[in-house]
Write a structure and sequence with these properties.
With about 190 residues, the protein is of the alpha/beta class. It is built from six helices and eleven strands.
Amino acid sequence: MSDSKRVLLLAGDFVEDYEIMVPFQTLLTVGVQVDAVCPGKAAGEQVRTAIHDFEGDQTYSEKPGHNFTLNAAFADVSTDLYDGLLIPGGRAPEYLRLNTRVLEIVREFADAGKPIAAICHGIQILTAAGILKGRTSTCYPACSPDIAAAGGSYREIALDAAIVDGNLVTAPAWPAHPAFCREFLRLLEVL
């Protein structure tokens, strides 16, 4: 266990419930400090979550999730203070990728070679930041054209698996949490 690691978690309204809650709590369990932030919100404010489930339809279903309380302020983020970046999926990434500072933060982590973990639709932020050229990653299949458009290689894998390419770990959706969290913890040198 490590109490010396610190991770930045980028969140927004309608982030996927499991994809924010499970990694957040997993990292805390092993002593990693996690600062959950959202553009335009301060510590103590909340983001709404959505639960995406796989029920045999052509795509996931969506139901209301829990409210998630942020514990840090987006305005105070300095990437020098963090060892890694965590980006959950859901609908939040589709509009968070429009925020210039969000993209700058992702590029700063990438340029520093720090671990970056993105699950499901979180890949949309990485593609918008332009850091996937020449990289192999995965995501929810509906986002796979974004990877190709960004110059990366999409790999289709089992829903419960994860891919590591250098400092980057990606996974298709929340069923991959055991593999996704384990690989991110390895990149952080906690495991």
